[in-house]
Design goal:
heterodimer; A: mainly beta; 3 helices; B: alpha+beta; binds copper (II) ion
Chain lengths: 269, 641
């Protein structure tokens, strides 16, 4: 209310103020004690009238989209291209994560693998989010759905980790762990070793997977951050199959290990 | 109070005037005091001075506009005040009245907060707390008797408007002779300017919190440390930081990568210049009006006498350099006797840039600009680590720049004065049990490879952290909480000249309210740098309720910094008396920069009824939730349950 706000003023202002409202003197320059708590409903954080806007915007939703790897490899290798992207939208504690990855040969047909995930991420500790959701593979054929439960975050010593258990619609259980580390050669030239491990609880030969450790994929990528958001890289990727998975691959005339030099780009917004 | 301005003719006229201002060229858009040197030769030093004059009531209009202006060597859209950024000097007289009118010409809500000024809370200018904000086209009027003197400032408290220019200086002349007897006074307003949209800047921090940090430790640094201190020590250090997933190079969230640092609105290249006649006493009213940047201020070749902090007079302290946190002000007197120019150097704490100006006897003169010094590093003291309990061996703490210091560089003058003249019944602050010797003692435990020396520099442990780790929104806690008011600011530990410390601030008047505090309120400064979350006690503003100060009571407010960076914590509406062991002469502060891993105690007389904002003055920390309302009322008993 105006009366409470306008205090004693100099005579030169009287004309101006008279046009606004009557002036109430409060010569000590302090507010009335009974003006502190508003009469009507109040906001629990500010104690101010509930209709007022908030002083800060600490509940804003944020978003993040990243192509971690988009690369092209050696034409000699089995899979020439690969993508691995993810993003999130949400607040500090609750986020929706979306992920996709896949790879395939440049010549001929559909990708060897194409995968999508939609996950709810709950922050459970300063560096870790627990994730539950669904994964859907378009390739290899036939399509398959999975339930996902995972843990993603930053492990001590700066290991970026993404681990998940998958249960397919047929009840097949598998595990994947991805770990990345960053070594700063300079502020913009960064060497990134990467390790991915896949394992299955039982044989699923129709998907070329055997029980136990399926494969590992190790990589080292050297990127240059032209901007933080855009970094081309070169690297090498080495894949090795193991156990039954290896036997299946061999039986089908596929390679059981491969090494590929890659060029690619990492970008985010 | 929002008063609709129905006079559309008047508004149209104002817009027309705005357009004229634009046409007049960018020179007109700079404050008078900043207009001294564009293109490097034209000086207008006279306009840079605080005008002064006979005490009088002041009526002043502030027109808030969004305009495209020339700034920091480029052209950008800024929010101006009367076509200026920073805005015009608000000059007031203690004992007289202020009538201020804020006209919003933006197409969004705005506000002006009168930082450090005692006034009725409804005029304090914090939307959503003190008033609803000023709608587009509206005028907000504040009218109050001026109850104080000193150097303050004003700025928008709406969204991120402060970052894009909406700041300005406030000077209040003392009703009585303050004894400073300056021949000349200049305001020195420091800002950080970015050409990025501040909302995008904040989004980047949220997505990648080290986005702006281009001084992380590299493989090359590791090699250097190996050659300096051996493989084992260097690796141990890397492992210790790696285990915590923290970076010792985390000095500033936002750096010179995006910021230009401005002095009175001018880029270092434009070299703001104030004139003087040799022998004159010049009062520099230094205001850190930046959004995110701490500065180290010095005038090479000139000693400074610090005469006021946060507007409030202190007993003069002669020094060579001071660190100024965001939102703080320091008044210094310099007396250049030689007929030469002096650089006013304001280097950022992280050394990623600087603001700079010149004091010169004649236009066009300039002095050398010192090189940026080596970037500082965080230490285990900043982390609140308890070295005595760690298997540290010969671990080298914090790397290269640390650990060469010795006791001589720690200002012990505060602690040597013994406990402040008040009761410390209800907590262990105050230094009566702890002394500088304590620092020697604990330091000796920690080995010889720098740790000991660093521990000697740091203040004594005065408390230990409780079991509450403040949830996922907080990364670390200060296991040991140190008294660090006697320490130099980050990065100034080893500088070989005098550096101001908080412990040197001694009031000119004895404490008025000598009651024992009736309650102690402990607030922890918390955050998760990895996710760019900032909070108090691990809880951000929206999930919290007001802090209650019962009206009329004496409150002891204890701030514990669990994070590894400084936070300038600002309380609106009331001054805080900093318990820095200056007996009955504790200095007043409106903004206290709390060192990492430290515990600070403040006394407040809750005699200003209102809903007052209380927050970290790093703009993006505040916006993320490091904010509370302090409610001074007589009803807190029932509301607090
Ligand atoms: Cu902060």
């Amino acid at each position: 209310m105006l009366n409470n706000y306008l205090l004693r003023s100099g005579g030169s202002l009287l004309l101006f103020l008279a046009s606004v409202s009557a002036v109430q003197a409060a010569s000590n320059g302090k507010s009335d004690l009974d003006s502190v708590v508003p009469a009507g409903p109040m906001d629990s954080a500010s104690g101010a009238p509930v209709a007022w806007s908030k002083p800060i915007n600490d509940q804003k939703l944020h978003k993040f989209v990243q192509i971690d790897r988009l690369e092209y490899g050696d034409p000699e290798g089995p899979n020439n291209y690969l993508w691995d992207a993810q993003g999130w939208v949400g607040g500090d504690f609750n986020k929706l994560w979306l992920k996709t990855e896949g790879e395939g040969p440049i010549s001929g047909g559909s990708p060897e693998s194409t995968e999508f995930q939609a996950l709810y991420n709950r922050m459970i500790s300063p560096f870790w989010g627990a994730q539950v959701g669904l994964r859907y593979d378009v390739n290899p054929n036939p399509d398959r759905g999975f339930a996902v439960i995972g843990l993603q975050g930053l492990a001590p010593y700066w290991f970026e980790s993404d681990t998940a258990l998958f249960v397919s619609e047929d009840g097949d259980v598998s595990f994947r762990g991805e770990f990345e580390y960053e070594l700063l050669l300079t502020q913009r030239l960064i060497l990134q070793p990467r390790l991915e491990i896949n394992a299955s609880a039982r044989d699923t030969p129709e998907y070329g997977l055997g029980r136990g450790l399926n494969n590992t994929e190790m990589g080292v990528r050297l990127r240059y951050e032209i901007r933080r958001e855009f970094a081309p890289y070169i690297g090498v990727r080495w894949e090795q199959k193991y156990g039954d998975t290896k036997d299946i691959a061999r039986a089908e005339g596929e390679s059981t290990s491969s090494t590929a030099f890659v060029v690619g780009v990492r970008a985010w917004y | 109070m929002n008063r609709h301005s129905h006079d559309s003719d008047r508004r149209r006229l104002l817009r027309a005037m705005g357009a004229t201002g634009l046409l007049a060229g960018f020179n007109a858009l700079l404050p008078a005091y900043a207009r001294s040197s564009i293109g490097g030769s034209h000086l207008n030093a006279a306009a840079a001075q605080v005008p002064g004059g006979k005490p009088r009531d002041v009526v002043m209009d502030f027109h808030v506009r969004r305009e495209t202006i020339d700034i920091a060597g480029g052209r950008a859209s800024a929010i101006t005040l009367n076509h200026l950024t920073p805005g015009p000097i608000l000059e007031l007289w203690e004992g007289k009245n202020a009538h201020l009118r804020v006209h919003n010409h933006l197409d969004e809500s705005t506000s002006i907060h009168w930082h450090g000024i005692l006034l009725p809370f409804q005029m304090d200018g914090v939307p959503g707390v003190a008033f609803p904000g000023i709608d587009p086209g509206d005028t907000f009027e504040v009218d109050f008797p001026v109850r104080q003197a000193g150097t303050y400032w004003y700025h928008s408290h709406s969204g991120l408007q402060e970052q894009v220019g909406q700041t300005g200086p406030t000077v209040i002349h003392s009703a009585e002779d303050d004894g400073i007897n300056a021949d000349r006074e200049y305001v020195i307003v420091l800002n950080d300017w970015t050409f990025e949209d501040p909302h995008r800047l904040l989004a980047k921090l949220k997505e990648m919190s080290d986005y702006y940090n281009f001084s992380e430790r590299t493989v090359g640094d590791l090699m250097e440390d190996v050659s300096k201190s051996g493989v084992q020590a260097a690796l141990r250090d890397r492992l210790a930081w790696g285990n915590m997933r923290m970076s010792p190079r985390d000095i500033a969230d936002v750096t010179g990568y995006t910021y230009s640092y401005l002095m009175n609105g001018m880029h270092p290249e434009s070299n703001w210049t104030g004139l003087f006649t040799p022998g004159e006493r010049i009062r520099l009213r230094v205001i850190n009006a930046s959004s995110m940047t701490y500065f180290n201020v010095r005038l090479p070749g000139l000693a400074m006498t610090v005469v006021a902090a946060d507007g409030k007079e202190i007993q003069p302290v002669e020094t060579d350099e001071f660190q100024i946190g965001v939102a703080e002000t320091f008044d210094v007197v310099v007396q250049p006797k030689a007929d030469q120019a002096y650089t006013i150097m304001a280097e950022t704490m992280d050394r990623s840039g600087y603001a700079r100006g010149t004091l010169a006897p004649r236009a066009g003169m300039m002095a050398p600009v010192p090189a940026l010094r080596e970037q500082p590093q965080r230490t285990m003291v900043d982390m609140g680590m308890d070295m005595s309990k760690m298997d540290m061996g010969g671990m080298k703490m914090g790397g290269g720049s640390m650990g060469h210091g010795s006791m001589k560089q720690m200002d012990m003058s505060g602690s040597s004065q013994g406990p402040a003249g008040m009761s410390h019944k209800d907590h262990d602050m105050g230094g009566s049990k702890m002394s500088g010797k304590m620092a020697h003692g604990t330091g000796a435990m920690a080995g010889s490879m720098g740790t000991g020396a660093m521990m000697e520099q740091s203040g004594p442990i005065i408390a230990r952290h409780g079991p509450d780790h403040h949830g996922p929104g907080n990364l670390t806690v200060a296991n040991v909480e140190r008294y660090r008011l006697g320490e130099r600011g980050t990065g100034l530990e080893d500088v070989n000249h005098r550096v101001l410390t908080y412990s040197q601030l001694r009031n000119v008047v004895p404490m008025q309210d000598r009651r024992d505090p009736s309650r102690t309120i402990e607030v922890h400064l918390t955050g998760n740098m990895d996710r760019y979350m900032w909070s108090f006690d691990g809880v951000k503003y929206s999930n919290a309720t007001p802090i209650e100060f019962p009206y009329g009571e004496r409150i002891r407010l204890i701030l514990v910094n669990d994070t590894m960076m400084e936070h300038p914590i600002h309380l609106h509406g009331m001054f805080m008396e900093l318990e820095n062991k200056q007996d009955d002469y504790l200095p007043f502060k409106h903004t206290i920069s709390v060192m990492p891993g430290s515990r600070v105690s403040l006394l407040i007389t809750a005699d200003e009824p209102g809903r007052w904002a209380f927050h970290c003055h790093l703009l993006y920390h505040m916006e993320m939730g490091m904010f509370r309302v302090v409610r001074v009322s007589d009803q807190s008993g029932d509301k607090n349950a």
